[in-house]
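Batch queue: ligand-bound targets. Current item pairs a single chain with zinc ion. No template structures supplied; prediction is de novo from sequence plus SMILES. Inputs echoed for audit trail.
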Amino acid sequence: MRKLTKNQCAVFEYLRERPNVKTSPTEIGNIVGGGRLMKGSGNTLILRHSSWASPICKALVAKGLIRRTNKGQYYYYECECPACSGMDEF
Ligand SMILES: [Zn+2]
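Prediction returned. C-alpha cells below.
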C-alpha cells in the first residue's frame, strides 16, 4: 500500500472502526480534525470542517481504501454476509 500521510491515516482509522457507516466530510473534519482549532476571520476560532476532510477523503478513495456515496459521504466498506463476518471458523 502506498504510504498515507498522518491526516489520511487518522481519517482512514476513524472510518475503518465504523464499517459501512456513511459519514459526511463535515463530521469527519469535526471529529478527526477537530482537536486543532484554526484561526478564522476576525480572530474567531473555528473548528476544521468539510474543507479539511474532503481532499483527504478523496485521496483515500483514489487509493481504493474507502468508498464515496453519490451524496458525498464516505465509508469503509466491509461485507456483512455470513462468510465474511467471521462468525464461522474455517
Ligand atoms: Zn461477504
